[in-house]
Amino acid sequence: MFYDLNVPYSPGDPEASATLNFLAELGYTTVALSQTITGKLPPNPTPPPLPSNVPRGLTLLTRLNLPLSDPAQNQRLTGIAQSYDLVALRPTNEKALLNACTSAECDIISLDLSVRHPYHFKFKMLSAAIARGIRFEICYGPGVTGSGLEARRNLIGNAMALIRATRGRGIIVSSEARKALGVRAPFDVINLACVWGLSQELGKEAICAESRKVTALARLKRTSWRGVIDIIDGGQLSTPKRNAAEDSEKGAGPKSKTESNGDNLKRKASGSEPNMEGAGKPLSKREIKRRAKKVRLEGALGDSGVSPAT
User: Fold this and answer.
1) How many domains does the chain have?
2) Which residues pair with 229 in a beta bridge?
3) What is the pLDDT of residues 138-195, one digit of tens each?
4) What keywords are assigned to this protein (predicted)?
5) Among 54, 213, 225, 261, which one is least packed by beta carbons within 10 Å?
6) In angstroms, what CA-CA distances link 158 with 101, 113, 151, 178, 265?
7) Sheet holding 135-139, edge to edge
8) Could you tell me if residue 102 is inside a domain?
9) Where residue 177 sits, what CATH number does that domain have?
10) Residue 193 belongs to some domain of the structure
């Protein structure tokens, strides 16, 4: 199962149908249609209606992209996240990136790797986000759709720095393609990831296992409370009601049985006491000395011709 979790979409887009058909033909099974909101957040943001002519076997998700420059914008992220399947933040400075990694409620941190960043990616900061279940996204679209030589060079350098800082963990790869020409086949994406510094196995996980974990964790956040799932009881057989007389009889039965078993156990224990020595029970040092003395005494009496007293 291959995932592409960032396909820009707007209602009435003439390229949307061709892009989705091409993704399905390449073998992708899950696609997230992303909507970007810049500036002040609306009171009740809702995802756009999904296209009607969806290829068979293709699962569509809704995604919200939010450019983040001020940490004060995070106050409404929890309420907004209930309307979308995925919420992605795009920090524009180091302070916003630190806030997104440590405290912001999001599913994906999608950095614009086609521009030059004035700061370095730090392992301690990025690993805090990975420990919280947040994944970092690399979008290859700006580097393959003719955005310019500068954008391609920045994409390669930033992707290598991000992979080096995260040790190759918590990375997903998406297209961010607005047209079908910007989409690449899954194994072409894996080769791109190998060029950036990921191994072939991690490159495949970036569009398969890691992307699946993102969607699963996002769904778990929205359908549970702190990872605790409500279980609905059902399907059990109802226990029949019993009379008080039956309860009293059944309550008295085990008691008498217990008493009788206790007596039997006591009798068995008392009856088996003489045979405990022959059953392999270890003798104490005092008992060994007593028996040795008894044997020597019997031997001395036998030599003198006197029978031991009984």
Assistant:
1) 1
2) none
3) 999 887 776 778 888 999 999 999 999 999 999 999 999 888 888 999 999 999 999 9
4) tRNA processing
5) 225
6) 18, 6, 10, 22, 79
7) 2-8, 28-36, 59-68, 86-91, 108-110, 135-139, 171-174
8) yes
9) 3.20.20.140
10) yes
In a domain, 146, yes or no: yes
How far is residue 126's CA from residue 130's CA, in Å, rounded to a whole number? Answer: 7
Helix (H) or strand (E) segment spanning residue 278: none
The answer to whether the CB of 11 falls within 8 A of the CB of 40 is no
What distance in Å separates the CA atoms of residue 278 and residue 267, rounded to the nearest whole number? 19
% of the chain residues with pLDDT over 90: 42
Residue 137 lies in a domain: yes
Can you list the positions of beta strands (E) in 22-147?
A: 28-36, 59-68, 86-91, 108-110, 135-139
Tokens of 27: 């073998």
Please give the Cα distance from 6 to 32 (Å, whole number): 6
Distance of CA 288 to the CA centre of its chain: 64
Helices 149-166 & 186-196 angle (0-180, nearest 10): 80
Check residues 159 and 72 and name the one with the higher pLDDT: 159
> In which domain, by residue range, is 119 found?
2-223
